[in-house]
Amino acid sequence: MKRNAGGRAAKRLPVTRERIFAAARTLADRSGIEAVTMRAVASRLDVEAMSLYKHVRNKDDLLDGLIELVMQELEPPPVSADWRSGLRLRARSMRTVLLRHRWASMLIESRTTPTPARLRHHEASLHLLRDAGFSVELAYNAILSLDSYIYGFVAQEVWWPFEPDERPELGASLAPHISPSEYPHLLEMISFVMGRAAKKEGRASSTAAGYQADFDFGLELLIDGLARSALSQKKR
């Protein structure tokens, strides 16, 4: 047991499911999901690993608890919201949370346990679309398409080996190795991206703003497509 400055035994906080999951989340945020083991969580709480099993059944229960914590951070679309603004809020909230916990997207997609926050998230999304007149089929396809886009975009942000403000240097290093006669359009795009990054140089939070603008562009394409599909559905 740890001791305080006076040499007396420091009072240890009781172990609870909430403290276990919070400790696991901190480990994952700092060192990745691979760092989350029962032994590592116990060490962070200054207890023996076996004491955790009074509160969590096993490693699967621990991982499901992590998903629940992350899903609780998502901002659900208000039931009264216009479906377009509701989907924008949902998508941006998901991206923000998944970037805050960069290990979370793969974990969420790999597990199927219906945790309460996860169920509420999907129910609120479907409620929004069904109230807007979307058929069950269109609502399903809408959520599937949006989530595929969100998770895919976040994966690129997480795994790309460079940041947006590093694009000019990256482009400058790549350009000499790309033949203008064979790849003129690729060089044109590299030049455009480098120029855009240079214009943003020196602005506060240019990295975050750059990715946010790219994300919003694709999101609006999806929402516009869903609006056309919803209109077509009503005409049938």
Automatic annotation (TrEMBL):
InterPro entries: Homeodomain-like_sf, HTH-type_TetR-like_transc_reg, HTH_TetR, Repressor_TetR_C, Tet_transcr_reg_TetR, Tet_transcr_reg_TetR-rel_C_sf. It comes from the Bacteria. GO terms for biological process: negative regulation of DNA-templated transcription; response to antibiotic. Gene3D superfamilies: Homeodomain-like, Tetracycline Repressor, domain 2. The keyword Hydrolase does not apply. Residues 37-56 bind DNA. Keywords: DNA-binding, Repressor, Transcription, Transcription regulation. Coiled coil: none annotated. Residues 14-74 form the HTH tetR-type domain. SUPFAM superfamilies: Homeodomain-like, Tetracyclin repressor-like, C-terminal domain. GO terms for molecular function: DNA-binding transcription factor activity; transcription cis-regulatory region binding. It holds the Pfam family TetR_C_1. TetR is the repressor of the tetracycline resistance element; its N-terminal region forms a helix-turn-helix structure and binds DNA. Binding of tetracycline to TetR reduces the repressor affinity for the tetracycline resistance gene (tetA) promoter operator sites. This is TetR family transcriptional regulator.
